[in-house]
Amino acid sequence: MRKPKLVLSCASVALALGIAAFVLLPRPGTLRYHLQRLGDLRQSKFLSSPSTRGDYLRSDLWLWYLHGRPSIADMEREQQALIQLGYFERRELTFSHRGLDPRLWSEFRSAVSNSPLTEWRYMVHLDDSRPSVIRVTTCKTDIPVFERIVAQLDTK
Fold it and tell me: Quick check: pTM over 0.70?
């Protein structure tokens, strides 16, 4: 008599966990999935080799070993997916009066860090062949902030 109740209870718990996982976990192709994936790639990109015994117990280290070091192409795929979903936009911002030298880059980074932007929501791309251009991939609502920063720094 107890076995059927135990089996029924276990089946109910398993079903509830399955439904919860389906509802709570982001599904591929969704905005939430690609944002989470991009965040994971950005965090693991800077994961260094283990330096202590405790590092070997970290799950992100084992995932890094299993999946390999994230590539720029992986990050680009996630950015493109977010652009296609309409959440991100990619814009090239040009400095008309200044070239992108170490001083300007430092000023740009400082202005961005002092702005209301969130670190995980934007990516900045530089191209050595075009030293006056910064390509920004970010939320559509953050583009005006970057445009304002470039305009302010370009007049100095």
Answer: no
